[in-house]
Structure formats: C-alpha cells, structure tokens
C-alpha cells in the first residue's frame, strides 16, 4: 500500500516542489461547468503540517458508506470533533444525503478520485478526468469544491502532484499517521496507533468503510483529546480559508465572479 516515496513535509516547505518547468502540458480535458476555485494556496503536497498549534487532522477515506459514515458522524458530534472525508466520487454520487450531512455538521470533503484507481499508472488526461468528475459530483451535491486530493494507495508521482497543482490548484494530501486499519488489526490497536501518532500538525489516516475503524474512533478521540490536541479539518489545520464556498470567491463557467 505504499508508493509514497520521499514525500515532502508540509506547509510552505512544500512550495519548493512546485515548478512550472516540470509541469507538462496536458491534453485538453473537457472542463466541467462548475465554478473554479480562486487560487488561495501554494502547497503542492503534504503529509503533515508544520505547526506548534495543538491540532491534528482526522481523515477518513473511501466513503461515504451508507451505515458506517452516519455512525461515525454521530461519534464525531459527541466529541465536537471535526474531520475531513476523502470521498470516492462514485460513492458521493450514490449517497448525496450523507454528503450533505457531512458538510452540514462542519466537516470537510476531499477528493479521493472517481473510481479509486492507481493514479501512478494513469496518464495525465485520465488522472484529471478522475479528479474533475469527482470535483463536479461534490459541487453538485454540496455546493462546495474540495481543495485537497488524496491519491488512492498514496500512489502519485511528484511529477503528477506538480501537474495537478499547476492544472487544478489542488494540493495532494497524504498522511503522517497510518494505523493500517484496513488490515483489521483490532479496535484497540487501531485506536492506540492513532493516538500514539497524534502530535501537532499530524494527518491521521483511517477508512470510514470499515466497522472496526468506527468502533475505534471513540477511544482514539479520547486519547487525542487527553493529549490536549484538537481534531480539526484539513483547511483549518493548514490555516487556509474554509474549503467550502463560504467567504471564498469563485469564477463561474461564464466568468462571472460571485461569492458562494
Ligand atoms: Zn482509498
């Protein structure tokens, strides 16, 4: 499940990855009619955020799931914790009500591709189609556009990260803490790994499609909160403007600017 290679550490340190010289021109891809997000950040990729503020990002991949995601949302609400959901476009399309609930409860949506392919094996045109169609589905569903993308399996080359950043101003977010919950090592093990890896700026990976992962979340949250760490969304951890339309300027397909 690796393929991460040498991943750049976060924040402004990652800006060095950005290079127009390396970005190749990409075959024309039909542009979705959704509004384009004005460029608000300059981070090509990150696996953690360099910060001393006692905050972490809990991230949940591969949903929404019809039972487990609502169950997780109930738990997060109990602890007043915010998270980021890297959704698969096909699942987002299938469960729009859960998507709307995620956003209504103050969580963030990230792009985890349309069909969960190994992006490193795809050409740029197909990569952008996976990303664009998911952006469009999220926009159509919740009226907001993700500002981060997480590659399935972490499989995405630095050249592709640069390409995505140059072409779409999307930052690639991987993770700094991997509890390997998909291997189902047991509820306590997953919770313990999440807590032990939690430190200021950590990005914690989990999957809300697995029941045992959801069962681990209360124990993980208790441990994280006991360490004085606040679970926040990716945009909050990065001190970016809110990911959604509120307060951000968009340019619609017609070029008309408005505030979402
Ligand atoms: Zn995934």
UniProtKB/TrEMBL annotation:
Q: Which GO terms describe its molecular function?
A: hydrolase activity, acting on carbon-nitrogen (but not peptide) bonds; metal ion binding
Q: Which residues form the NodB homology domain?
A: 54-232
Signal peptide boundaries: 1-23
The record ties this protein, via Pfam families, to:
Polysacc_deac_1 (PF01522)
Q: Which GO terms describe its cellular component?
A: membrane
One Gene Ontology term of the biological-process aspect is: carbohydrate metabolic process
* Keywords on record: Hydrolase, Metal-binding, Signal
Which InterPro entries does UniProt cross-reference here?
Glyco_hydro/deAcase_b/a-brl, NODB_dom, Polysacc_deacetylase_ArnD
**Family the entry assigns:** Belongs to the polysaccharide deacetylase family.
Task: State the protein's purpose.
Answer: Is involved in generating a small heat-stable compound (Nod), an acylated oligomer of N-acetylglucosamine, that stimulates mitosis in various plant protoplasts.
The protein's name in its UniProt record: Chitooligosaccharide deacetylase
Top-down, what is the taxonomic lineage of the species of origin? Bacteria, Pseudomonadati, Pseudomonadota, Alphaproteobacteria, Rhodobacterales
